[in-house]
Write a structure and sequence with these properties.
The chain is an alpha/beta fold. It contains eight helices and ten strands.
């Protein structure tokens, strides 16, 4: 495998692709390693089988998942927007072509401008068997890309565990062969993706705290930043007022810096801003109300279940009917 690609293509990868691959791998891994039911812990035979199964799954290699990546190519720029799963048989190293064609047809109806750009998998490095899948997709895209996600956790690694490969024809020992070559990429996001990723990152409890605690800390940080920005703008305002009154000498270089800084601030005194702000504010309130109603409904369901359980026990003793 060569060190880097020489095609000159620019790859832009969207976070949704990484989230989809990670979700696909997590689901497959959870299905292969189901949790042990606590009701079976009293049975020594079942517990022994579960322990042996846990040891076998721990020693087994991590599962690999496969799928297609879709997006657009504009000139020398390839932008990967989304992905979907593939059915792959590791015993025969073959893809389910009818399933692939069906998924391609469905995505074409929803995203008519998206095309299959290549495929994805999981693992620490590209394997020889991966070239078989790569060649199988060449009838759809003559030069597919290969997105590889490494699911193993490395705390010392700072970069994303994602590698993009291209295929190039090289002559090795006098025989022309297709090999994988690494390609550089950048993360490209749209506004909806940035909001979603930021929301998930801040709501995930990383230190044992609840989601509400994480959200409160996030909102407190935003409030402190806005408060600090307001105080700095007030200092500039007082300085300009004092300069206008002649209390301090006028410095043109400093005025140019202040003017350049103020141009970076968004203009919020407009009708469009008020409409957009009120719309987003109302949407936020609506989502809050819906979350509150959902929480109340869940609490009510738990209360009803407790009542039914209690009355069911009494009915067995005294013949009373259930509450609901």
């Amino acid at each position: 495998m060569a060190s880097s690609s020489s095609s000159g293509l620019t790859f832009k990868l969207h976070p949704l692709v990484i989230v989809n691959i990670s979700d696909h791998y997590t689901r497959v891994k959870s299905q292969l390693n189901p949790p042990i039911s606590p009701n079976n812990t009293n049975n020594s035979h079942t517990a022994g089988d579960a322990g042996a199964s846990a040891l076998s799954t721990a020693s087994a290699p991590p599962p690999r998942v496969y799928g297609c990546v879709i997006g657009v190519q504009r000139g020398r720029t390839v932008e990967i927007f989304n992905s979907f799963e593939l059915l792959y048989d590791p015993m025969t190293n073959s893809l389910d072509r009818p399933f692939l064609e069906k998924k391609q047809e469905l995505y074409k109806k929803v995203f008519p401008n998206f095309y299959i750009l290549g495929w994805y998998s999981t693992g620490s490095d590209a394997e020889e068997s991966d070239m078989l899948i790569h060649k199988a997709l060449m009838d759809i895209n003559e030069s597919p890309v290969y997105v590889l996600l490494n699911p193993s956790i490395n705390p010392a690694q700072k970069d994303l565990p994602v590698t993009i490969y291209e295929s190039e024809l090289h002559v090795i020992d006098g025989i022309p062969q297709l090999i994988f070559v690494r390609s550089s990429y950048t993360i490209e996001t749209v506004e909806a993706e940035r909001i979603s990723v930021d929301h998930v990152a801040h709501l995930k409890p990383s230190d044992g705290g609840s989601a509400a605690t994480q959200l409160a800390a996030h909102l407190t940080g935003i409030h402190s930043a806005i408060k600090m920005l307001n105080s700095r703008i007030r200092v500039l305002h007082h300085y300009l007022v004092a300069m206008q009154k002649g209390e301090i000498p006028c410095e043109n270089s400093l005025l140019r810096q202040v003017s350049s800084l103020l141009r970076r601030l968004p203009a919020i005194e407009s009708e469009k801003f008020q409409d957009d702000f009120l719309m987003e504010y109302n949407d936020t309130l609506l989502i809050t109300y819906l979350a509150m109603f959902t929480n109340c409904s869940s609490t009510m369901n738990e209360l009803v279940d407790k009542f039914n359980t209690a009355y069911d026990r009494h009915s067995r003793r005294g013949g009373r009917a259930a509450f609901i």
